[in-house]
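Re: [ENG-882] Designed sequences occasionally contain unexpected residues at chain ends

Forwarding the minimal case from QA. Structure tokens:
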């Protein structure tokens, strides 16, 4: 008869899962004003940086309007300077002695009116320049153009998606987990994952987010692992990943 001594060991529960790589920043970009597409500056698959122009609309009429506002503003500034000069001249000769007091007050009122006109035209000019800037669609963050929906010569309007932009650096893996495994997601739970098409093999990570709301159809809840720079999640948005949640009791 052979007798063996029992030794304690870990009890490991492992749950295999299939998940999806998704981006934390995905945007369907649209213009802020309606207009005719003058220039298409990106193609599907292009990498862009924040602030880079993606589309340009025909802005000829807006540029002419801004030029007219600039001319009016310069005229108003010149009129204000002349009004201020006349007021200084009246005050220098002495109000009430060489020039009526009412004339000095009238010239002071003219200066105030000129200053108000300059302020109004400055606001109109700022508004016109802002409208002009809105004839360009720019990237709000670094990313990859995954879809483009307009061509040169087409009329586009606000709310109409022209470009889909995806940030491939801030990625995460989403997993639908059967609800019966929810008790396994304690402090000791470890996520071992592998991304389809990636050069790396199996890796371990902590579970970043658990959404404890069950889908009534599939009876699953979501668990997610976020990737800081996306290096080990090197797959396109929407790609797949295999994983296993391990609980060591």
């Amino acid at each position: 008869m052979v007798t063996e001594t029992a030794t304690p060991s870990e009890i490991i529960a492992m749950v295999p899962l299939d998940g999806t790589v998704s981006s934390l920043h995905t945007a369907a970009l649209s213009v802020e004003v309606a207009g005719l597409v003058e220039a298409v500056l990106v193609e599907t698959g292009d990498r862009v940086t924040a602030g880079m122009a993606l589309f340009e609309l025909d802005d000829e009429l807006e540029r002419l309007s801004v030029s007219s506002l600039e001319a009016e503003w310069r005229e108003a500034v010149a009129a204000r300077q002349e009004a201020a000069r006349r007021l200084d001249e009246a005050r220098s000769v002495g109000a009430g002695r060489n020039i009526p007091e009412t004339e000095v007050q009238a010239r002071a009122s003219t200066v105030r009116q000129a200053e108000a006109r300059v302020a109004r035209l400055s606001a109109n000019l700022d508004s016109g320049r802002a409208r002009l800037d809105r004839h360009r669609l720019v990237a709000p963050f670094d990313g990859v153009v995954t879809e483009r929906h307009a061509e040169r010569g087409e009329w586009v309007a606000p709310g109409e998606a022209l470009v889909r932009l995806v940030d491939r650096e801030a990625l995460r893996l989403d997993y639908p987990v059967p609800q019966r495994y929810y008790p396994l997601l304690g402090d000791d739970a470890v996520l071992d994952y592998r991304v389809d098409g990636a050069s790396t093999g199996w890796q371990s990570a902590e579970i970043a987010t658990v959404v404890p709301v069950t889908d009534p159809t599939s009876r699953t809840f979501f668990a997610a692992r976020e990737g800081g720079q996306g290096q080990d999640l090197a797959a396109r948005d929407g790609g797949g990943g295999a994983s296993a949640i391990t609980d060591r009791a």
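QA comment: On inspection the terminal residues look reasonable. The CA atoms of residues 196 and 207 lie 19 Å apart. Proposing we downgrade this to a documentation issue.
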